[in-house]
Amino acid sequence: xxxxxxxxxxxxxxxxxxxxxxxxxxxxxxxxxxxxxxxxxxxxxxxxxxxxxxxxxxxxxxxxxxxxxxxxxxxxxxxxxxxxxxxxxxxxxxxxxxxxxxxxxxxxxxxxxxxxxxxxx
Length: 121
Hints:
- By secondary structure, this protein is mainly alpha-helical.
- The chain is 51% helix and 12% strand.
- It is built from five helices and four strands.
- It has helices spanning 22-33, 44-53, 56-66, 73-79, 82-103; strands at residues 5-8, 11-14, 19-21, 112-114.
- Helix 2 (44-53) runs antiparallel to helix 5 (82-103) and helix 3 (56-66) packs across helix 5 (82-103).
- The relative contact order is 0.18.
């Protein structure tokens, strides 16, 4: 397990942990996304909502083109299709929580986000 600590203003987290404070995840997401411009200059939360409104099955199907080239054949066979679907569902759940937190900043508490691998991963 990696025990490296990264410090940034308002952001401190340890790599390799299986849990993270949700407020830290939101702050880190906002820090990372600040380097990019959203389509149509939407707010970050609005851009997330557009992605979340996209068809789940289409997102899963896109993994064949966008994710498969980065995985070995054995890894792809292991995760396709159920593992990929679980990854998409988990990601959508977390992004929905991040969008909610961005829209209502005072609502983020010291809740933790489970970073464990999904079943079968």
